[in-house]
Amino acid sequence: MNDVSRAYDVIVIGAGPAGENVADRTRAAGLGTVVIEHELLGGECSFWACEPSKALLRPVMARADARRVPGFRQAADGPLDVPAVLAHRDTMAEHWKDDDQVDWLESVGVDLIRGHGQLTGEKQVAVETPDGDTVRLTARHAVVVATGTGAALPDLPGLDSVRPWTSREATSSSEVPGRLVVVGGGVVAVEMATAWQALGSQVTMLVRSEAGLLPRMEPFAGELVAEGLREAGVDVRLGTSVISVTRREPAAGEVRVELKDGTETTADEILFAIGRTPQTGKLGLETIGLAPGDWLRVDDTCRVTAVPDGWLYAVGDVNHRALMTHQGKYQARIAGAVIGARARGETLDTSKWGAHTTTADLVAVPQVVFTDPEVASVGLTTREAARVGRRVEVVDYDIGLVAGARQYAEGYRGTARMLLDEETGVVLGVTFVGPGVGELLYSATVAVTAEVTVDRLWHAVPAFPTISEVWLRLLETHRNRGTAEPR
After folding, report:
1. Per-residue pLDDT at 1 exceeds 80
2. Given this chain, do its domains 3-42+98-150+278-360 and 159-274 carry the same CATH topology?
3. Which of 150, 229, 148 is nearest to 185 (CA)?
4. Mean per-residue pLDDT for 300-317?
5. Is 117 marked as a binding-site residue?
6. What is the residue extent of each domain of the chain?
7. Is 233 labeled as ligand-binding?
8. Do the annotations mark residue 389 as ligand-binding?
9. 242 assigned binding-site residue
10. Is 336 one of the annotated binding-site residues?
11. Is 482 one of the annotated binding-site residues?
């Protein structure tokens, strides 16, 4: 065993999208940077989340859209080619090899150390490598934690022996289970229920809340997604809690799920999609006075607030600001610029939309749920607006009435909602639900981020006939309220 010591300007622990991006930005700022990773470069998103899950879902969405097109319905009415879908998923996940990611890291001049990294003191990190060596690192300017999150599991007796699926198994399985129980009602739950039902599983969803699916979004989003899932054949059960899970032997035996109401259900596999936990338990946080296993709370420059002297940063899911890949990459770009500026002794621009502050995390987080129908949202929802005391005008429109939607699909069902600040007319939030609405989201994100008013949006003309014409219909609905006769 060898013990080696090295010094870098910046040490990054974790090489998912956020870690890779902050390393790229600090290196571009002229700082010597090293990345530590004990799994695959590219992290959860590349291998067990965004990329493989969307590869599973894309054929499902394409077939659903084709079935709504007159003249094409019969041609698209057969089953999916499951081996082809899984093979495409494997390709998108690079067959769980990270050679391309390693090549990219080398191309931008960032060093890589394979192994498990943990803090050992102020600006100190020790890496245990796969061959048993220890590499001791010192950071001249900053240590960045980008270790992400893992799947949360319930505290149920004997759960380990059941070998439940988490999001990792759900996105990487090489076989389609005959029966699949999905526990949860959030994004991972609805997406994986959509994918595996279409691939041939008999899917049952067990959702603890009576409020419905996608509880953090507008209520109509969860209602329309639940309707779509049920029409596809998914058994969606609300207000249902799991109290025990057992698996019959041998290893591939049947899973028995006992519910709080005294009933039970059985399946070949069970997926728990009930949330995420920070991967900080083995990070050595106790050596710098923090609690292992906690989220790393940060300020708007991504600097960990509980650590004196400002040398520790956290980007991506691990800081709990916005658990989405694109927001983690956004944070990484900002944090990289911040670290570079501080290293050069420059004054930071931390104004609301300044170069060194993650304002979008607070007001303009975009999200797409890849189900049938799709859900796309950014900014405030009506419930969030009420919670933070914002007075808003709610403008709704049936997307199915838009000419572009009728061209897109026969019998198009969908809803658009725009929230406006009552005093200024600024767009504060937008939610779209319907086939193909994910491609509308960037325009909504620009409107919220740029604090665009409805008066200015009136001059942004959507092309006809596209689904984006829903923007015009929302604006007309808002304007007509001011001119309509009293009811």
Report:
1. no
2. yes
3. 229
4. 96
5. yes
6. 3-42+98-150+278-360, 159-274, 373-481
7. no
8. no
9. no
10. no
11. no
* Alpha carbon distance 27, 373 (integer Å): 41
Domain 373-481 has CATH 3.20.20.70: no
- Binding residue per annotation — 188? yes
Considering the segment(s) 159-274 as one domain, its CATH architecture is 3-Layer(bba) Sandwich (3.50)
pLDDT exceeding 90 applies to what percent of the chain? 93
Question: How far is residue 389's CA from residue 152's CA, in Å, rounded to a whole number?
Answer: 32
Residue 111 annotated as part of some ligand binding site: no
Q: What is the DSSP secondary structure assignment for residue 268, as one 8-state letter?
A: S
Residue 400 labeled ligand binder? no
Whole-prediction pTM: 0.95
Q: Which CATH architecture has domain 3-42+98-150+278-360?
A: 3-Layer(bba) Sandwich (3.50)
Confirm or deny that 122 is annotated as ligand binding.
no
Residue-wise pLDDT for 29-72, tens only, equals 999 999 999 999 999 999 999 999 999 999 999 999 999 998 88
Task: Determine if residue 375 is labeled as part of a ligand binding site.
Answer: no
Residue 328 annotated as lining a ligand binding site: no
- Backbone dihedral angles phi then psi of residue 397, each to the nearest 5 degrees: -150, 145
pLDDT tens, 179-217? 999 999 999 999 999 999 999 999 999 999 999 999 999
Determine how many CB atoms are found less than 10 A away from the CB of residue 116: 16
Inter-residue contact 332 to 298 (CB < 8 Å): no
Over residues 70-91, the pLDDT tens digits come to 888 888 888 999 999 999 999 9
